[in-house]
Amino acid sequence: MCQKLRHERFIASPFDTVALTMGDRSHLEALAQTFVSDNLRQYLAHSAMGLDKVDDRRWKVVKAKEALRVYTERSQRDMARRARKHFAADASRVYTEDDETEYTVSELPVMFSAGTLVGGLDDVMFGVVNPTLELMRIKSSYVGDLGGAAVLATVGEPTLDDPFSSLVIKYMKMKLPLHTSGLVKNRDFVYMEATGVVQLGHGGDRIGYHLMHSVHFPQTVNRPHKVRGRLSVCSFFRQTSPDTVEHYSSGTIDPGGVIPRALLVRATAAQMLAPLRYAYCGQMKKLTWMLQQKREERQVGNGRSKLMTPDHVCVTCRSKAGNQFSSKCCVCLGDLCRSCSIKKRLSFLSSDSALVRCKASVCTACMLDGLHVSASRAARDQLFGASICSAYATSETSSDLSPSLDGVESKSMRRGHSVDQDAPRPHASR
């Protein structure tokens, strides 16, 4: 069954058009490169020592899931309390002024996450990159990392050489605990988002990156009932084994006003666990791309692809599959018995750009093909073809995915932005 989500959280833009000059674009590109380079050195230094080597006098775990942990820098009060406790336990230790300086921190929480993700680097990066409003909707449906967002301007788009590269100006909302009570206002952010892959030297490791750093434009005025915050977070991903990706992310979020530290830390920690779903997001986007490929093959062949099994016979186990509990693989259209049907919920965009979530059945062979198909190939293919997220129109009442191109928009209309040579330069806080 397909469900059309009518309450859309993603909008074209809540501001006047943010027009960028060529100077603005060059400035933003240089700024992003600087932040990525600085944070990459920090990540490599930490990785060389071991991501699990953490000074618990300075950092504490605030959230953990699977093989990923999120840490926050201890508050001044906590640091002082631990210092007094340690001093009492070891009276022979003499604390100098340098000792106090080393472990004194501000009340603005600095946080980082470290650990491993299951999957491949390209799948992770295919799940990360989302330079358009359509792809933001699709990503959020799998990852659940945004309460609402918009694309304000595009600086750089994916290319054939680097299908995971992008530099986009975005707006997002962050929902905080207790906001419904009126005690705490939700925050919003205007930021540049940069994604891509770098290589360490000739033939060295490939490392994916994801940068989010606050910027400001005259058009991005404060919105009613929201408090404008600032953020600077940079994440890295490196393949360490065929099914394991090392992950490291660090940064800070300024809430822009008084807020209990615990609430901010909790909300930020939840966001920093989002990478656990990146590979899955990339895999589901690949599966959607395979649907489009098979659909085009059937169009060229004037009908259904030839299957190796007869009708009403399960393509996986070869048992009878003609009863009311059977289904069809959404990729190859082969019959499936109830036991062999792999259920997935796929995301598409309807002709009116609303997000549609469809329950689909997949056979084992097509599922394995989807896992092993190249994410880079799928990402490159969508640069020149129809968007993988809108290549299928769906019906709210149909249990099948209905292949149609009604929901496909031209790339120029999806990504077009005007350029004003007299627009003011953007500002970023370092």
TrEMBL record:
Signal peptide segment: none
Composition skew (Basic and acidic residues), residue ranges: 408-430
Region (Disordered): 395-430
InterPro entries reported in the protein's UniProt record: Rab4/Rab5_effector, START-like_dom_sf
PANTHER family associated with the record: FYVE-FINGER-CONTAINING RAB5 EFFECTOR PROTEIN RABENOSYN-5-RELATED (PTHR13510), RABENOSYN-5 (PTHR13510:SF44)
Protein name: FYVE-type domain-containing protein
Species name: Phytophthora rubi
